[in-house]
Design a protein that fits this description.
It is built from eleven helices and 20 strands. With 469 residues, the chain is an alpha/beta fold. It has two domains: 319 residues, FAD/NAD(P)-binding domain (3-Layer(bba) Sandwich); 110 residues, Succinate dehydrogenase/fumarate reductase flavoprotein, catalytic domain (Flavocytochrome C3, Chain A, domain 1, Alpha-Beta Complex). The strands form six sheets. The protein has a five-stranded parallel beta sheet, sandwiched between helices. The N and C termini lie far apart (51 Å). The protein binds flavin-adenine dinucleotide. The site of flavin-adenine dinucleotide (FAD) has 44 residues, from helix 1, helix 2, helix 5, strand 9 and helix 11.
Amino acid sequence: MAHNGVSRTLRDTIFSVTKPTPAECDFLVVGAGVAGLRAAIELADAGRVLVLAKRQVRDSATHFAQGGIAAALSDEDEVSLHLQDTLVAGDGLCNVEAVRVLVEEGPPRIEELIEWGTQFDRNGTKLAFTREGAHSRNRVLHAQGDSTGQEILRALYAKAKTLKNISVLEFEMSSDLLVEAGRVAGVSVIGNGGKLQQITASAVLLATGGLGQIYRNTTNPEVATGDGVAMAYLAGAEVSDMEFIQFHPTALYLKNAPRFLISEALRGEGAHLRNMEMDRFMSKYHALGDLAPRDVVARAIVHELEVTHSPEALVYLDLTHLKPDHVRQRFPRIYSTCLEYNIDITTEVIPIRPAAHYAMGGVRTDLSGHSNLPGLYAAGEAAATGVHGANRLASNSLLEGLVYGSRAGQAMRDNLRDNTSRLIATRCGTKLGLFAKVLVSARRSKRCGVSNLEPVTREHAEPSRLAMF
Ligand SMILES: Cc1cc2nc3c(=O)[nH]c(=O)nc-3n(C[C@H](O)[C@H](O)[C@H](O)COP(=O)(O)OP(=O)(O)OC[C@H]3O[C@@H](n4cnc5c(N)ncnc54)[C@H](O)[C@@H]3O)c2cc1C
């Protein structure tokens, strides 16, 4: 049995990697979830990319994500509606530009994922969209019913494996950032077997995911201990919005069972919340009833627990009025996991309570993943772009990992190119003057296989060619 009661049928097959730890690389990506792998793919033709995972690649929130990934791709949807829903859920505290980037770049990032082999569920040949809380349209894509993250991770990892510049090392725990002359220059790692080592790189991306494990009740996997945020903070990076933690309203609540997530998509498909007296209560708290934003639902549950003075502090999710075949087919993972704990969700209500689920805050970044420390980037749940405001809209975080992972990768490669060009320009400019700079760059261009006589510019300063400097 693995985290959250999910059996690991693929263990040690596609995710097994054993390679020695190198002392240096061009780009270091700490974290192998959706954000880290998407960034690595972006970086692959700009230099050697090393991706570190604290445990196996499958030990990530991405792998456990159930409900889906949101994007305005259906015929009835519009990007502006996705923008609006995200801003409303964020409670007025979103960075509007960050949200705009998310909803506009989301659809092409997902189309790319599909090209790389991600199998989203379909109705016939058309993509199937479901609804989750606080979405005004059916816009959530899902895979294998309720195993969306696992399918996305599989496809990203398979794509990364086709790119020879990417190495993924498992059981390498990054413990500190190396800072030289105010610039992040690598990380210290504790490898498999406890050996401490340093790895240097031109840029480091923190894609270490969330921090749910600091709470007693959480849906998060064991790796989610906020390492990236801690490392960044200790190195002097700004962190922000750390007070905004999302509690998922519906985690399985049984003695001796993990806080397995019962996806919001169940309510999207018609499941109802009921209190200890079996009354439906959500319409008292929000016009959207069972599909109100997560923070509203979680607070409503806590309030119900207080007013009903129930000896057992829990409420229920009820799917018993839905067609059993549909439930089993649409939510196979949730169905089988609950059955392991003797609950047949087609005939019995599910005992649930809120649990810590998602960190809106993290390492403060701009819209390209730059932190305030040169050489340090962050993406995914470890980052705070302001895209979620005070409360993340359901199914926006896998999307965030894709969009902002890709952007951080682009920024890291651009930065390496800029630095290399600047280094050459400085050396040439100060020592030899402008005319000599042209001659030197011509000579170097020959060495690099560039045939014209122009000074070295950004376009010519490809990092792999310039590694000799
Ligand atoms: C049960 C569950 C269900 C969810 N369902 C959905 C959903 O349906 N839709 C949605 O959009 N979002 C969902 N989420 C949220 C979403 O899954 C995460 O926010 C997202 O996957 C985070 O991706 P990430 O790449 O930032 O981090 P992760 O996927 O968590 O990956 C973090 C990586 O960092 C590595 N790492 C951590 N610390 C270190 C260290 N010190 N050294 C080296 N490596 C380290 C880990 O090993 C891991 O590889 C769900 C979350 C959970 C827990």
